[in-house]
Amino acid sequence: MKRLTIGLFAHVDAGKTTFAEQLLYHTNSIRSRGRVDHQDAFLDNHDIERARGITVFADQAVMEYKGDTYYLIDTPGHVDFSPEMERAIQVIDYAILIVSAVEGVQGHTETVWQLLRKHQIPTFFFINKTDRIGADAVRTEADIRQQLTEDVCGITDGFTDGIIGEPLREAMAERDEALLDAFLEGREDPVFWLESLQRMIAGGLLFPCAYGSALQDTGVMEFLNQLHLLTTTSYDENASFLGRVYKIRHDAGGTRLTFIKALGGRLKVREQLGYISGGVQYNEKVTQIFLLNGYKSQPVEQVAAGDLFAVAGLSAAEAGQGLGLLSDKLAYESEPTLQSKVLFDNSIHVQKVLGAFRTLEAEEPSLNVVWDEKLQEISIRVMGLIQLEVLEQLVGERFGFAISFGQPQILYKETIQSAVKGYGHFEPLRHYAEVHLLIEPGERGSGILFDSRCHPDDLNVSYQNLIRNHLYEREHHGLLTGMPVTDVKITLLRGRAHKEHTHGGDFREAVFRALRQGLEKADNVLLEPYYDFKIKVAIDDMGRVLSDIQRASGTFDPPHMDETQAVITGRAPVSTFMNYSTEFASFTHGRGSIRCVFSGYDRCHNTEEVIERIGYRKEADPMYTSSSIFCAKGAGYSVPWDEAEAKMHLELEP
Questions:
Q1: Considering only CA atoms, which of 62, 92, 93, 52 is closest in space to residue 75?
Q2: Cα separation of 556 and 553, whole Å?
Q3: Element at 226 (helix H, strand E)
Q4: 109 and 46, same domain (yes or no)
């Protein structure tokens, strides 16, 4: 018996949830088929999803087919919920990418495809809605071949009951010399060709493509059988336990549930599970294990490699976290580019609101909740306006109070142009710590990297690790706008502690002052988020689009044109381009297509304007100061950043 996790992906309205309903119905997992427009789909079981008609949460179901177990994850198709989708990608074995036979390859289809390829997920295509007016499965397959991959292969007519037809064998032979020899020799062995196709699909060399209508239940059962025959697994139940966390949820009683994919071995209730979170080693007992099927949960005593399940008892595990012998933590590409303040009535205690958002942050880490104690303000980060609307409704339903959000603002970041050294000293009476840092510009997207050139004889390794932890414990404010500092490499050059007077928190004070003092001397650079875009437009509208891109401070490559349309690719700031899709749809009357994908941060196109608008006052930041504290005559006194170097106790590196 094999256990496989299958992820369902699609652009909004391609029919993904209806397709899932058919699979579950045909495997007797549900008694009747629901529909999105009837608000009774099994996997869209949240009121928010049913009311909006879109998938918001990556929920899972279990289905049995011919002795095998399939865990089905229905992922969000809207770009605002891309982080939820990306976390699901990390634990699936195979993907089904659903494409509408009417609209063809759309913007989010390409985004999903690129993520699937990055993570090397074997992928099946299902061309849906072939019953609709204007549908053309042949044209859509050609669209996939042109825009996504030339390695797509049709299986609706070329693969029946495990027998591979000649056109499909020929496609296989074109990609493998050994298979080419077998094809030319006329080898007919069905098992040989089936196992070869399984291997090519698993290796990402071929991508099977079927078509049908989920709504009319055409081609779905045939596809399920093809999926069963063409997928394989190699999980080892006898190995030591390996697991990967892919989401956190809280049940109605507030119990924290950790959702896990078992990658090896077995896990039983009451076993100890080890993992590292925030640099701390945890060993916690698994108190309960559940198999989830939509909104239903079934307690079990044991799970094995390949299973998808939830456990209670883990207090600090996070999405992406490795468990057992798997100690790494995955990073995710989807990154919010907007931030917004949480607004609420004064009658609601701020700590109640903050507690609610800390719970939501555990479930959706990209929210990155920020609490400004001085201003008594809560801010969050989001992908878009739809996500804010969903959060507003979610807080009301789950926590019982009303909130709203301020106008979303672009999330800027800051870095430096060239290397500087920063010095921090903290010595009020009976405290002591001194830190010397080298701060260098890093590659775009590298975040903050830490290294140490400090000899353990000069500063104990435990103190060096403490300095490292302090640098990673929170985001640090830049000097231009107070936005997060990123893309820097920070090297500890020297440090000093006192045998008696160094206490907890002293090195935090020293290292933050050293970082800030270095930034005071640096050539600071403001960064803003950018989109990579791909626009398909009629030739007559191309000139308008190119002009709009230039007006938005974007850049573009030479357009690719045929007789009727142009394809334009390029890059533009999120701030000037985030609402362009609405304008584009208006003047093209919906006949063009636009795809925008976050492509990281780069130099801000209007730095001075942004600095003036934000109005950050570095000297008034309650969380940071660039001054150092020294001690004289039994009392501490402050020394400004530009005078502090001369007073450092350690010798300065040249």
A1: 92
A2: 10
A3: helix 220-230
A4: yes
Of 293, 419, 318, nearest in space to 368 by CA? 318
DSSP assignment letter at 213: B
Statement to judge: residues 449 and 345 lie in one domain: no
Give the residue numbers spanning the domain of 562.
526-609
Q: Which residue has the tokens 């104690």?
A: 373
Residues 393 and 286 in one domain: no
Task: Tell me the CATH number at 474.
Answer: 3.30.230.10
- Split into its structural domains, the chain has a count of 5
Alpha-carbon gap, residue 371 to 505, rounded angstroms = 20
**654 located within any domain:** no
**Kindly report the CA angle at 252 between 249 and 257, in degrees rounded to 5?**
30
Of 434, 428, 431, which is closest to residue 651 (Cα–Cα)?
Answer: 434
Residue 199's pLDDT is 95
620, pLDDT greater than 70? yes
Same domain (yes/no): 193, 103: yes
CA dist 423 → 463, 475, 563, 621, 642 (Å)? 16, 19, 63, 19, 10
User: How distant is the alpha carbon of residue 102 from its chain centre?
Assistant: 29
Both 369 and 316 in one domain: the answer is no
Task: At 10, list the tokens.
Answer: 């699609």
Same domain, 213 and 259: no
184 in Cβ contact with 100 (< 8 Å): no
- Residue 317: CATH number of its domain: 2.40.30.10
CA distances from 546 to 454, 554, 563, 568, 588 (A): 53, 9, 18, 8, 14
> Which residue, 324, 351, 373, sits at the end of a domain?
324
Distance of alpha carbon 85 from alpha carbon 105, whole angstroms: 18
Neighbours of 373 (CB within 10 A): 9
Q: What is the distance between the alpha carbons of residues 608 and 597, in angstroms, rounded to a whole number?
A: 26
CA dist 137 and 129 (Å) reads 9
The residue assigned the tokens 């650079």 is 525
The sign of the torsion formed by the CA atoms of 366, 367, 373, 374 equals positive
Give a yes or no: residue 614 inside a domain: no
Tell whether 53 and 147 lie within a shared domain.
yes
User: Each residue of 252-267: pLDDT tens digit?
Assistant: 888 999 999 999 999 9
Per-residue pLDDT, averaged over 75-83, amounts to 81
Tokens of 328: 């790494």
Which conformational region is residue 94 in: left (phi greater than 0), alpha (psi within -120 to 50 degrees), or beta? beta
Beta bridge partners of 104: 100
Q: Where residue 207 sits, what CATH number does that domain have?
A: 3.40.50.300
For the entire predicted model, the pTM comes to 0.84
At 332-374, the pLDDT tens digits run 777 889 999 999 999 999 999 999 999 999 999 999 998 887 7
For helices 539-551 and 580-588, give the axis angle rounded to 10 degrees. 160
Q: Is residue 137 located within the same domain as residue 202? A: yes
Closest CA to 382 of 598, 549, 554, 577: 598
Contact 617, 482 (CB under 8 A): no
Average pLDDT (311-328) is 91
